[in-house]
Amino acid sequence: MAWTKDQLAARVAQDIPTGSVVNLGIGMPTSVANHIPATHEIILHSENGILGMGPAPAPGEEDFDLINAGKQPVTLNAGASYFHSADSFGMMRAGHLDVCVLGAFQVSEKGDLANWHTGAKDAIPAVGGAMDLAIGAKKTFVMMDHVTKSGASKIVPHCSYPLTGVGCVARVYTDLAVLEVGPNGAKLVELAPGVSFEEMQGKTGVVVGR
Amino acid sequence: MAWTKDQLAARVAQDIPTGSVVNLGIGMPTSVANHIPATHEIILHSENGILGMGPAPAPGEEDFDLINAGKQPVTLNAGASYFHSADSFGMMRAGHLDVCVLGAFQVSEKGDLANWHTGAKDAIPAVGGAMDLAIGAKKTFVMMDHVTKSGASKIVPHCSYPLTGVGCVARVYTDLAVLEVGPNGAKLVELAPGVSFEEMQGKTGVVVGR
Amino acid sequence: MINKILPTLRDAVADIKDGATVMIGGFGGAGMPNELVDALREHGAKNLTIVNNNAGNGDFGLALLIKEKRVRKIICSFPRQADSHHFDAAYRSGELELELVPQGNLSERIRAAGVGVAGFYVRTTFGTPLAEGKEIREFNGVPFVLQEPIHADFALIKADKGDRWGNLVYRKAARNFGPVMAMAAKCTVATVHEIVELGALDPEAVITPGIFVKRIVQIPYVPTPGMKSKV
Amino acid sequence: MINKILPTLRDAVADIKDGATVMIGGFGGAGMPNELVDALREHGAKNLTIVNNNAGNGDFGLALLIKEKRVRKIICSFPRQADSHHFDAAYRSGELELELVPQGNLSERIRAAGVGVAGFYVRTTFGTPLAEGKEIREFNGVPFVLQEPIHADFALIKADKGDRWGNLVYRKAARNFGPVMAMAAKCTVATVHEIVELGALDPEAVITPGIFVKRIVQIPYVPTPGMKSKV
């Protein structure tokens, strides 16, 4: 019956080992934090210069000097630290983050990522930290709907949208399945409950190995 | 009668404006700090990551985690800060230091500096922070004897020793005189008391303008 | 006596000339020196190049500077926001030049200017439209893209506490671009909520050494307002 | 639970293999992790490449590692000291390779490795013998010299306090190379004089965030011994 967004976030959370340093992108990926088991200690990184980010504050306790990449107020866990933007992005670029989870418009079977620009002529471009994150983390996971609103596969032979990074995605988590992507193409890791391989393959723009 | 080392240090100190951030090299330059007038507030930088270095501690008060570039124990003045080595040398390289004072084997009339290596084949080379300092400070002053022990001029048309930096020296302070050096050659700023221009010129390997 | 404390915001921005490059700290609202940006707006300089992570939002600060057509070019990573209508309008009209730089390249290019680095190579942007026109070079078989430093005439930043030498500490994640912008500009101006006696800041915990700061101005602490989230 | 605290120095260096590149913090005696260097010596790894500002002095720590012919190559800025006799002998015999790097290039090359920069240009060394064999490139008419990052398998550093996540603060000018070496090595090992509860270090004043540290070991605080001055 496919995964709900909440179930999908929980599925991604399963693949984040205890002790990891993790950056969760804006939007859907942020919700992964809610599904990390209490027995798992992970360290959340925020691009604006925080390690050890905690959950949202109680209403009325917001401090907008302590925000995440999406500019939402957060808190600190014990063990947290602040640092400047250049050091923060240095952490990404040099591979110090274990996992990042990003949203996407398209992912190619080789692991190319397009998530910052639709290519539309009148669109106002904005890239933020997406390119640094995509190529920097030891493992980049993408979390997205399997198909667009019009039903087109978001897993494609080649991205038609402008790229965020080349060959940087390790795994794609969709409402229908978990897939590995990379030099050898797409490969099934797991189907969502009630989804058949044929149904998933039928909605996927590339051949999925199994 | 020429300047004594102490008088020379005092003469250099005269040319350091109040409020300057200053790095004093190892050896003779270090003594310049003793001659800064009490009414002048200057900020001493140490390459190992200190701004606001103070004088030597009282005997028995030494802390060898708080040392200068020559590995001698120092103290902190109010307003001091610590930072790591890359930031410390970044300060130099990008021209944030107002003045540095260095010793030298040779200075050319164009302002080339040789102060790290005699070129002797069996010498063990060591460069430390000399090259970064020489080219980095807004003004690089050299403080040295006018001639070598054997009487040869240390101010030369071209350095015969390996260079520390090209065209980086602004002024040379010797026991005999203060000279400007640079693209237009050497030029007299001031003679030590009792030293005639002819005497100084006779001991100088380049033509000194006046 | 070294005294970098100025009495008013106006004094602190009085010599920003038309055509200047001005860095403005902040990520979202945190660390945004709105008081200094307002002073710059009142001061009147125009034809500015602005470096900021964003490009203004709502109807205050940087957004108003753009609205009043005082900005010729903006170098930033994320101009699009829910309420970046003044940027959107100026950009669409073609009167505002945009140099879009990924945030990591932006912050490292700023630091490079502050430490005397004339160029450096990173993997970020390789294979993307943002590498167009830039030199690609392989190191150990991996392609990297050449980045050049971003220098500025002025940096306007928001810190929390400072002393008369210009030593600064920040408040929480409002630190972000402040320390690197302070290094990169010829003249860095910081607001602080509290001016402390020289020696009151712990030398171990000073974040921006005073060598990087030319002017500080005290302003009252006002909680940073919330922003609409990124689109 | 994340716990980077190891019980013994021996455990902390047990997997350093022959041929490894090992960064060793410190400037003079300050920040020199002699306890870890002694553990490395007892551990027995050989054919090492060592990165340190100096090259050992007296008859302890790094000097003994050199004396025992365990070091193949040393990358440093200032090997010559009043009592660097073990380095001097090994260097003169030709059995120890020396890469002499100005201290600013050394520290920035180490940082570059820690932040994913594959090369960068600085003015330092232009026109000197230390630029020989390196690429020269002009930016705005000024010549700069290409520098490459220095990566390491291990960094051994001395901090003052740490917690189980590996967050560190240092003691005075013993900080020096610690923070950048921690960023540059695959496995950073720090000694601390005190292990504190998670949350006890002020997030505003953490100097090395735990992400850069893999192992910490507590050792007793012993005042850093004085050194003979540079020759």
Structural class of chain C: alpha/beta
Major sheet description of chain A: 10 strands, mixed
Order of helices and strands of chain A: HEEEEHEEEHEEEEEHE
Strand content of chain C: 15-25%
Distance between the termini of chain A: 20 Å
Helix content of chain A: 10-25%
Number of strands of chain A: 13
The mean pLDDT of chain C is 96
Which features would summarize this protein structure in a list?
heterotetramer; A: 210 residues; alpha/beta; ten-stranded mixed sheet; three-stranded mixed sheet; globular; C: 231 residues; three-stranded antiparallel sheet; 6 helices
Describe the structure.
The complex is a heterotetramer, with two copies of chain A (210 residues) and two copies of chain C (231 residues). Chain A is of the alpha/beta class and 210 residues long. Chain A is built from four helices and 13 strands. Chain A has a ten-stranded mixed beta sheet with strand order 4-3-2-1-5-8-10-11-12-13. In chain A, strands 7-6-9 form a three-stranded mixed beta sheet, with no helix packed on it. In chain A, a hairpin with a 3-residue loop joins strand 2 and strand 3. In chain A, helix 2 runs parallel beside helix 3. The longest helix of chain A is centred in the N-terminal third of the chain and has 10 residues. The radius of gyration of chain A is 17 Å and the shape is globular. The two termini of chain A are 20 Å apart. The mean pLDDT of chain A is 96. Chain C starts with 8 loop residues before the first helix and ends in a 13-residue tail after the last strand. In chain C, helix 2 runs parallel beside helix 3 and helix 5 crosses helix 6. The mean pLDDT of chain C is 96. In chain C, strand 9 and strand 10 form a beta hairpin. In chain C, 22% of the residues lie in helices and 25% in strands. Chain C is globular. Chains in contact: A-C, A-D, B-C, B-D, C-D. At the A-C interface, helix 2 and helix 3 of A face helix 4, helix 5 and helix 6 of C. Strand 5 of chain C pairs antiparallel with strand 5 of chain D.
